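Lab notebook, bench 4. Still working through the backlog of constructs that have no structural model yet. Next entry is a single chain of 238 residues. Request: give me the structure tokens for it.
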Amino acid sequence: MKPLRQENPRTRFLNAGKSAMMTYELIALLIQRHDGDDEAIDLAKQLHTRFKSIHGIRKASLYDLMQIRGMGPVKAMQLLSALELGKRLNQETLKKTHFLGSPHKVYDFLKDDLEPLDQEHFVVLYLNTKGYLIETVELFKGSLNASLVHQREIFKHAVAMRAASFIMVHNHPSGDATPSGNDKRVTGVMEDAGTMMDILMTDHIIIGYQQFYSFKAEQITHIHPSLESAQSTRKKAA
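Model written out:
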């Protein structure tokens, strides 16, 4: 008895709509060459299994994707381009208001840029008197310490933009948003400098994997509660 043929993703999209489709079916739709391309479905399943999630696929490089048999450069570029468009749509939606009045909104605004990175990036968000974003400036890459965070650079941009305040943001490539000693020292230095300059540092946010730490709130926020319980279990085991 022959196995049942899988429904073609294009047909399923037309009959059921995009929301009814499995993640691997959407991936297959992006990379398939023609109707009835069963190889694309198998390849999409392999991708989703190998990289665990859409986030994992987006974090992968062109080279990483091409390590899977059948995944050539064209298919890899098509897939990464679609995921990049999704990221930009998210940012475009958030930029319609530019209001960054809470740590969670800052996380939503920058997570797609900073979460996947394997090196620390230090970004400053400059705000007007009402808390709306004026500009985002990336100042440097590398491990955060007080000697690298030049007050002059931060306040030069603030004065030029006539910013009323600013928010510092950086990522932890480890995925754990717990602040280090250097993070705490940099925060203290910049808080004092902001008070002297009358351009306040309203928060310093550390972005990890599906979590962030806000110095203003003095706590880590886990985007999925299951991650918090899993992390607690690992700490107890240690």
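Notes after review: Residues 17 and 212 are 34 Å apart (CA to CA). The chain is about 50% helix and 15% strand. Flag for follow-up if needed.
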